[in-house]
UniProtKB/TrEMBL annotation:
It comes from the Bacteria. GO terms for molecular function: ATP binding. It comes from Solirubrobacter deserti. This is ATP-binding protein. The keyword Metal-binding does not apply. InterPro entries: HATPase_C_sf, Hsp90_fam, Hsp90_N, Ribosomal_Su5_D2-typ_SF. Pfam families: HATPase_c_3 (PF13589), HSP90 (PF00183).
């Protein structure tokens, strides 16, 4: 058989450019980042190869009138041959080979320069290499597919890339826009970067300042860290900052100074690799419960994808994620110990989110167990206070007020508001760890703890007189004795329905939801409500005695029914069924007949 002739694959560069422009990068501003990064790498190269070189500066300038943007460096420059071999060959770069000698280099794919053609309709590169400083060349191309190289007037060693921006990208020449873009991408770059003459990365991040030999007072250091966080995060002011140093990652996290609720998820994490912003929404590196945390970190071990806008999910990524989690927990503990004022604000701002966090993380639960508050009928309090006020038990309401609250108000006992985010599982977890009973109002087990059921011969008769359809009458004894009855809607069935609705809300902390749902799986729902009748109450006792003695109790019963209806009118669930005017006129009618 004749040997198969191997053919070369053809690359349609124009097609490739469309893919790159439309799909690889999320924003055309990335082109600016790629050019600055090349300038940076070129300076790094010159530092390695050109003994005695002491410079290193990147200048980005723009002319809004002509729509041009220029990136200039005093790096290694390129020889005539290097222009062809590296700049003009897609997928090849000098930088990749050099990476073995320095871990400061950013480029590796040999693709970044192509992004110039996404935003520029004409690209001119003027360069003089330190290897042949007397020869300068000018490279010109419109689409990147064809280019020309000519000798040009002598110039300083280094490279200048001048883009004439396409009509769609002219905005990049706007001075403020450009300063914003470059400032964001280069905030942590180790070399000075100037935009139209102004340095955009003058302030080193606090963790780098800290490693130099200058001793900074802790209060000063804290201020610097807060100022840095404020510069980095235009959306939320920082409340306090937490250091990150481990797992190949260094940087700062900060707690957002806003009032958040449980399902708030505003995790924000900017990741810089070798000083360049790579991903400004790397939220997955932060734990899910950290919805109120922002941060900026840098790492030399995380691996960018080719678009350099995302990170590869490799071992380094996992290690970074673990390190961030640990830094967050340790940092919160440190703030609690060292900055009481800031800590108090963290607790009030993010109480709900932290309830969810404590459920998801054992270490946090240990730190927060006695600091977080749960909402109760008597105001916000810790679970310990709830238990102290509840005679050694924690009472949790699953509804909103009504009969049970009336009863507990009469007893001056707090009931935690179980309908609020994470309250039920948090109280359960807290009490479970300490062997304390949780009484959930409206659940069958809760009711058993609250109402002492008794046998009553007249139960069926009373039920006939007082209950409606799907209501169960339960004779019982309970405090306070003055209260004749308590109508308890089936809270479990309600909770079940609500949790099912919550499931649709994706961002609710799954730990809290899971714990609560485990509990509701066992609920049936034969009755909508139970009417607990207090045999100790003078009203019921008198009614029963008269009935037993064969007296006419009709008027008294009318009055009792009217009172029951009035109490039910205060209950959200039963309110609709109550004929309020009927109940009031029932009272009037009974009184008239008694007089
Ligand atoms: N400003 C510059 N000064 C000197 N050489 C440069 C400059 N810009 C680009 N080059 C050369 O062109 C090569 C290709 O650049 P390009 O941006 O396409 O890829 P890269 O930087 O090597 O890798 P990546 O795609 O990861 O950015 C570089 O490796 C370098 O040799």
């Amino acid at each position: 058989m004749a040997p198969t002739e191997l053919q070369s694959t053809q690359v349609d560069l124009a097609g490739l450019m469309t893919v790159l422009g439309g799909h690889l990068y999320s924003t055309p501003a990335v082109a600016v980042r790629e050019l600055v990064q090349n300038a940076h790498d070129s300076i790094t190269r010159r530092r390695l190869e050109d003994d005695g070189f002491t410079g290193g500066r990147i200048d980005v300038t723009s002319d809004p009138a002509s729509g041009t943007l220029t990136v200039r460096d005093d790096g290694a420059g390129m020889t005539r041959e290097e222009i062809d071999r590296f700049l003009a060959t897609v997928g090849v770069g000098y930088t990749r080979g050099l990476r073995e000698r320095s871990d400061e280099l950013i480029g590796q794919f040999g693709l970044g320069f192509l992004s110039a053609f996404i935003v520029g309709e004409r690209t001119v590169v003027r360069t003089a290499s330190y290897q042949a400083p007397d020869s300068a060349y000018e490279y010109t191309s419109t689409t990147g597919e064809r280019y020309s190289v000519e000798p040009c007037a002598p110039r300083e060693v280094g490279t200048e890339v001048e883009l004439t921006l396409g009509a769609d990208h002219r905005e990049l020449a706007d001075r403020a826009v450009l300063a914003g873009v470059v400032g964001r991408y280069c905030a942590l770059l180790g070399l000075p970067v100037f935009v139209n003459g102004e340095q955009v990365n003058a302030d080193a991040p606090p963790w780098r300042a800290a490693s130099e030999d200058v001793v900074v007072h802790p209060i000063q250091a804290r201020k610097q860290a807060l100022a840095f966080a404020e510069r980095m995060d235009p959306s939320f002011r920082p409340l306090c900052t937490l250091e990150v140093d481990g797992g190949g990652v260094r940087g700062l996290l900060w707690i957002q100074d806003v009032l958040t609720y449980g399902s708030w998820d505003n995790r924000r994490l900017a990741v810089y690799v070798r000083g360049m912003l790579l991903d400004d929404d790397a939220r997955d590196l932060l734990p899910r419960w950290a919805g109120f945390v922002s941060g900026a970190v840098e790492s030399d071990v995380l691996t960018p994808t080719a678009s350099r806008e995302d990170l590869q999910r490799d071992d380094a990524w996992e290690a970074a994620r673990t390190a961030l989690h640990e830094a967050l927990v340790a940092g919160l503990a440190k703030v609690a110990a060292e900055q009481p004022e800031a800590w108090a604000r963290v607790l009030t701002r993010h109480n709900e989110g932290l309830l969810g966090a404590a459920l998801a993380d054992e270490q946090l639960e240990a730190l927060l167990a006695d600091q977080l508050k749960v909402p109760t009928s008597e105001g916000d309090m810790t679970v310990r206070e709830l238990v102290d006020g509840g005679d050694g038990r924690a009472h949790v309401g699953l509804g909103t007020g009504g009969f049970e609250e009336m009863r507990f108000r009469a007893l001056k006992r707090p009931i935690a508001t179980g309908t609020r985010y994470a309250v039920v599982p948090f109280v359960r977890q807290w009490c479970g760890a300490r062997g304390i009973d949780v009484v959930e109002l409206g659940t069958s087990s809760g009711d058993r703890a609250l109402f002492e059921r008794v046998q009553l011969e007249e139960a069926a008769w009373l039920a006939e007189q007082l209950t409606r359809e799907r209501q169960e009458l339960v004779p019982a004894r309970f405090e306070p004795a003055e209260m004749p009855f308590v109508l308890v809607p089936d809270r479990e069935a309600e909770l079940k329905a609500r949790l099912e609705a919550d499931e649709a809300r994706e961002r609710i902390a799954s730990a809290a939801l899971h714990l609560a749902r485990e509990h509701t799986a066992t609920i049936d729902g034969t009755y909508d409500a139970r009417l607990y009748v207090n045999v100790d109450s003078p009203v019921i006792a008198a009614l029963l005695e008269a009935h037993r003695a064969g007296q006419d109790v009709e008027v008294a019963l009318d009055l009792v029914r009217a009172v029951l209806a009035l109490m039910a009118a205060g209950e959200r669930e039963t309110r609709a069924e109550v004929d309020l005017l009927g109940a009031l006129s029932g009272v009037g009618e009974a009184v008239r007949r008694l007089l």
